[in-house]
Model the fold of this input.
Amino acid sequence: MCAAALPCSDATIVGAAEGQAPIAAASADFPIAADARLAGDAKQTRFVLDLDKTIQFRAFALADPYRVVVDIPQVSFQLPAGTGSAGRGLVKAFRYGLVMPGGSRLVFDLTGPARIANSYVLEAANGQPPRLVLELEEVDRTTFVQSLSADSRPELRPAIADAAAVASAPVEAAAPSRPDAAPDSRPVIVIDPGHGGIDNGTQSGSESEKNLVLGFGLALRDRIEKSGKYRVVMTRTDDTFIPLADRVKIARNQSAALFVSIHADALPRHEGDAQGATIYTLSDRASDAEAERLAEVENKADAIGGVNLTEEPTDVADILIDLAQRETRTFSNRFARLLMGEMKTTVRMHKHPLKSAGFRVLKAPDVPSVLIELGYVSNKGDLEHLVSESWRSRTVGSMAQAIDAFFAKRLATAGPAN
Ligand SMILES: [Zn+2]
Done:
């Protein structure tokens, strides 16, 4: 997986040879962001990030929706709670977090088209810490679009990254097969904890969806791996942002036999209460209004993470659901029904537990895929379940049963005796 020019696994080898010290030292060494503030008005807005050392950065604007993205090396964000949720001037809100090992990102949602008039890092001076400063200026749509083509062809991956940390980029982490390893013919199951890094998913108090579903995904992996019958690949194992298309790509590159995306939903306060787990499959028309709303929310992950949607490759994202996918859909639906059958005996299910909608993460044309909303973080009872170890263990157990049943049937129909 390593390009020859990159110092790929060298960093890991050095780390292993010298014990854990270099890695621990490196993680303790991340620059610290201690405060962030906005100033100005709807014509000119300034953003300032207080740091404990100067850093490199790359700033660029994105259209549809209007955003400004600032890629920086991995930073330890120690900002006051709620930072970024309230905007000012040209900034509606902003987020920050990890987008890859070694790379953090700030994403600003803009109220309209704006250009980066100025951006720089200041050394500590006059009792002020080192600062990253971004100055935005209102422009019209035409100027905005022109500035995009002139100065920025943003890449999906941050340009500013610690060389050592690049060695464990997410897609690579998801490809555990070494060239010298014996071929592994076991079915591959991809577990996809939703969101991550800069994208928190839904939030309830201190609990964010990205952490709940990561914990669940890892527990599910451990349970499934125990049988030895499957090879499990995670789309993420830590708090990193993974674009939706990359999640699908991981499943396809691994020739996965099953893709399971894990999420937790929330209802907007004015929409009342809902509870229980729901299992979603892909369809071009949503099965109901709630499924449509949810797919819309989940599909926003890339906009939240600062992915350039206008440049997204369309090969997977826009594939029409046609006859070629009929078999995949049949398998997806079969697994969804098996899963519901197993889960309903142990887990509280939504009153309509099987639904479908246009989830981008389910669009691999050749990998049976389901998305599970484990429950609603907006519902008190569900939230209690979601953070409960015993609930998780029971739920993971029922899902593992469904997976066994699914593959027992697949192997029976596709086996050599056939
Ligand atoms: Zn989600």
About this structure: The pocket of zinc ion is lined by residues 194-195, 201, 209, 263, 298 (CB under 6 Å).
